[in-house]
Amino acid sequence: MMWAYALEGKELQAIDVASLSEVHKFGSKADWLWVDFLIPDENESEILAELLGNEKAIVNDIKEGVYNLLYMYTRYEKRYDYTLLSLPFVDIEKELEMHPVFVIIKKKMIITWGCSHCPVLMKAIFRTLKEYASEGMKTDIFFVLSRLLREVVSLNSKTLVTIRERINKLEEEALHKSGKKMLHSIFELKKQVSTLHRLLSLEKGLLCDVREGIVPNVRLNEEAKLVVEDSINNVSQDLEFMDSYDRGLDSILSLLNLGSIHRVETSINFLTIILVIATIILVLLELIARSAHAALI
Description:
Blueprint: E1 2-8, E2 11-16, H1 20-27, E3 33-38, H2 42-51, H3 56-64, H4 68-71, E4 75-79, E5 82-86, E6 89-92, E7 96-99, E8 102-106, E9 109-114, H5 119-134, H6 141-174, H7 180-212, H8 222-296
């Protein structure tokens, strides 16, 4: 699926694009253009490659998930006349899953490329853009970029709620039971926390580079900078939460360790009592035996 968005006066126009000529024709009437790809098919991949200057190799590599520089984490790279950014967001069910969103910044054009998890994300940006345009407020490709960054940060923040709930559940379970299964759950969650912490750290680094104008082809106006600044503050807060989550998991491990020590002590005390009773019985038996022997003499 491929859509193009452009402003006509105060109204945001949207078309379902089927060819490169349609993109150029639609964009020729606008000051700037947003082209959004959702899991591009073969024809749309060719259009995307042409928009990037016949970059078929990189388009194929991204589709196949082998363009590792950008695929896993938040990064950016200058290529020819455009800048390519990766803005993955995460969700967590049984495991932590990353959903990459690629953004291409060209002169007066922004191209977004998402997966099947991205429609809600893009719709949120579209609604904000439409509202601003209808009120006659200034918008451009950096408006779209700054809102996209904020939405990605928001989605990643929601994942932290799920992690906190899982930690609370583990804390409750640790009071009643332990074992290999419990330890596996804790260490698995610690691994997810570590991965998300790395992602958020890189995300913050990218946001700071965007704000400071270090990212090639990205020059934000003051309003967009404020949006990015707000996102940076949110990520900083999320990183503090992640640190507290890791400490919380360490506390559960300490609780399990203390529980194990207590169980060992209980077992030792129980064995000691049995040993004392057995010793007393043996002494009594020996005394009885001596008495019987003395009576026979």
